[in-house]
Structures are given as C-alpha cells and as structure tokens.
Amino acid sequence: MKPPLFVYRAPRTLDEAVGALASDDDAVVLAGGQSLLPAMNFRLAAPSLLVDIQHVMGLKGIRIEDGLIVVKAMTRHREFELDEAVRHANPLIAEVMEHVAHIPIRNRGTVVGSLCHADAAAEMPMLLMLLGGSVVAQSLTGRREILAADFFQFHLTTSRRRDEIVVEARFPVLASDAGWAFDEMTRRHGDFAIVGVGAVVRLDAAGKAIEVRLAACGIAACPVRLTDAENLLVGTTLGASDLAAAAAAAAEVVAVPDDMHASSAHRRRVTATLVRRMVAKAAARARERIAR
Amino acid sequence: MTHGRIKPASPEDSGDPKIDVEVIVNGEKVVRRVSVRMLLSDFLRHELGLTGTHVGCEHGVCGCCTVHIDGRSARSCLTLAVQVNGGSVRTIESVAAEDGTLHPIQQAFKECHALQCGYCTPGMVMNILARFEEPTPLDLSDDGIRYILSGNLCRCTGYVNIVTAVRRAAGLLGRA
Q1: What is the CA radius of gyration of chain A?
Q2: Claim to verify: residue B87 and residue B53 sit in the same structural domain
Q3: How many domains does chain B have?
Q4: Which CATH number does A7-52 carry?
Q5: Inside any domain, residue B108
Q6: To the nearest whole angstrom, how far is the Cα of A95 from the nearest Cα of chain B?
Q7: What's the whole-model pTM score?
Q8: Ranges for all domains in chain A classified under CATH 3.30.390.50
Q9: Close Cβ partners of B169 (under 8 Å, ≥ 6 residues apart)
Q10: Contacting residues of A for B120, CB less than 8 Å apart
C-alpha cells in the first residue's frame, strides 16, 4: 500500500466537513487529490484524517456574478477550462489552463485544491495573483475572504488556517478592452513551470498603457506580482525600450537559487524574455479588442 | 504535522480502516470491502484481477494507469478506491468487443506499429478514447496529437507511430 495509514471520512454537509477538519490537528482536505495523492504515495504527506469533500452539498459548479467568476471547491480544472461562459468572461483563463498538467489530471484536480496546495511553480496561484482574486475560507467559527496577495505565503504554504476549508475562489472577469497573455517555459508540456509569466494590458485611445498587470510563477517562494515592471510600463506606449526596462526589472525579482531544472541566471533571462513577449502579446490583443 | 509525540493507536485493531466500496466497473456492479488507503489502480489489479491497467510511476507522471472515472480519463494511481464509491470506472478490458474484435484505436495502434513492449498502451488507449469521446473539436496536427499524448510516457517507440495511429483512429471513427 503506497499511502500511509489514515482515517477516511466523506461528509455530505459543509458543517460536518469543517467539524471533522477541526477535530484533528493532522486532518487534511481531499478534493481531487492530484497533488495530495502523489505526496501521500511518496509518504511526504501523512495526514491522520482525510476529509473527502467530493460529496459535500453546495461545493460544485461555477457562477459569474458582479464581475467575479466564482469557482466552488469541487470544480475540476477541466470544467473551468472548457466552460463557455468563463471563456467569454475571461479568455486568459483557458490560455493558462492548457498548461496545467495534462487532461487526465485536469479531469480530477480542482482549481481550489491547486490554490490551497500553493506550489510556487504552479499556474493557478499565479493566475489568482495576476487577476487580483481571492478565496473564501469557512470554519466552524465563520467565513472570511482572503485576497490572493494575503493568501500565498511560501511554497506550499498559505494563510488558510488548518481548521478552514476554502469553499470557493473568486477570479475577476477581464475588462472588455483588456488584452491578455500567458506562457511558460518547461522541459516537457505539463511539467511545472521553470518560469511562467502572465500579463493583462489596457490601453487608451492613443495607445498608452493605462493598466498593466504582470505576475510570475517559478521564480520565487510564491507566485509574485511584478510591480516594478508594471510601474515602468504604465503611461508608456510599450515600445521596445519600455519593454526592455520592464523586463530587466522583472528579472531582478527572480529569487530562486540554481536547481536541477535551471540556473538562477537562466531563470532571470527567461523571465525577462517572457515579460517582453507577454506584454507585447497582451498589448496586441488589447489593440484588436479596441478596434472591434 | 505534530512531532515528538507518539500517535494514538489506529481506530481498528487490524490497523487499516476499511470501508465498503460499491462501484460500476466496465458496466458491472462490484462491492468490495477495502482499506481506505487502497489506490484505485491496486483495487482494479489486486481486488478485481483487472491487470490490463498498468502501474508505472505511481505518482501521476507516466500515465500507464489511466482509466475512465465517470466517463473522463483519470490516473487510477492518484485516486483512492473509496473516492469512486458510488461512481463508475472503465478500464482497458472493456474496450475491445467481447469476441476480441479490436476497438478502432487498438486497431490503429496495431496497424501503425504504435507499440513495442506495450506497457504504456492501455493508458495511451484509455486517454485517447476519453479525448475522442469529448465533444470538443480535435486538433489532429502533430502538435495537437502530441498535446493529447503529453501525459503518457512511452519509452520504446519515440511516439512517431503513436501520433500516426491517433490520426488513423480518428479517421476510422469519423473524427478526422
């Protein structure tokens, strides 16, 4: 048997689920299991109690309201990727999703589970940071919303308390005049990103950037907004020298040391290149959307 | 995790907590009492004797153990048997007809020499089958097919013949 011993519970209500989680300090929530099960098969994770939330009522589906795409805790990656309303409301999401592992993994893995796992090289946390989204956490004592910037604290570490279940994630819709882009470098498709960069750009009628959002995964202990690069780009026409300056600023954010996948110097170069390319691509899409 | 403290005894004397799992496997209802930590891959192979589902890496990378859960492709090594309680699973054993007639995907693999040792083939076939059964359009360019196959490792063929087989299967199934 690969995973270590644990007790399994499959509650039907959220009250039972948060109660079970609060009853045991070493309890862990099981949603799709696509990060947790590998960790358990390696015995890197050894929870004493697994609280399987797949049958909990009210934790399925996606709704769009008040400018937010609300993704419930049991919504699988593939559902999020293929949902037509989501594609319309925020085309960046589908562009990111196709980089998340492989289809059979996305069929099981959940969006919220990936956010809670909070791998520093994973795409979903980067996406929530980039869009300025949030999660909603529920415990026996209440419910609170946590902004993405406050949620991701370190590799595999979030500000979720151990007695809380994240019941939904909220991704803002994309402004109708905004351009978007995401790409990453990996050795093989579906691997964790060595570096991934996402961009959202809005332009005024004269072609000057009025809003630039940039975020990256794989370059620091958690997903990061590239605010210095953003600030260098706002107000410019995103010319070659503007992009070069922003790319250089973004490269400075790379904090991970050399590892088996890439040297730190290589990550800095790739970060700079991706920032240039993603801003240019997002700007081109913004121009297309304005022209339409 | 708490350190420096000896854990209390497990809740059952036998060690492993067990649970009754009821699942439709290849259209047939099965009920088994299994350890809650039994992986679906082990459940299929050891409890049900369906050894067509292969086990490679057991951490979700190689794709050998791919089956269908509730109609969608999934890694049986990254799923606990208890997670499919009340659901349905389809394995490679159900793909060819009862009389042994190969499914068009299997036929295409045979014709295109898309397997050598065959270890990865059940996972490949189940993944491709699930993707063909999705209503979304298929991209049958080399890149599009390699994207579908990206979650399945083959250490023999170099993938070229597998890509050819997927395209041929799409033709045989009217998806080209």
Answers
A1: 19
A2: yes
A3: 2
A4: 3.30.43.10
A5: yes
A6: 14
A7: 0.94
A8: 179-291
A9: B104, B105, B107, B108, B109, B128, B132
A10: none
Residues A195-223 have pLDDT tens digits of 999 999 999 999 999 999 999 999 999 99
Most A-contacting residue of B37, B77, B154, B166 (CB-CB within 10 A), to test interface? B37
How would DSSP label each residue in B100-132? -PPPHHHHHHHHTT--SS-SSHHHHHHHHHHHH
Using the beta-carbon criterion (under 8 Å), do A7 and B17 form an inter-chain contact? Answer: yes
Structure tokens at B40: 């679906």
DSSP state of B105: H
Q: Do A104 and B73 touch (CB under 8 A)?
A: yes
Q: Report the complex ipTM.
A: 0.94
Q: Count CB-CB contacts under 10 A for residue A164.
A: 25
Measured between CA atoms, the residue of chain A closest to residue B131 is A103
CATH number of A179-291: 3.30.390.50
- The answer to which of A53-62, B5-14, B24-33, B155-164 has the lowest mean pLDDT is B5-14
Interface contact A26-B2, CB threshold 8 A: yes
Residue B2: Cβ within 10 Å count: 8
DSSP B46: I
* Predicted confidence band of residue B3 (pLDDT cuts 50, 70, 90): low
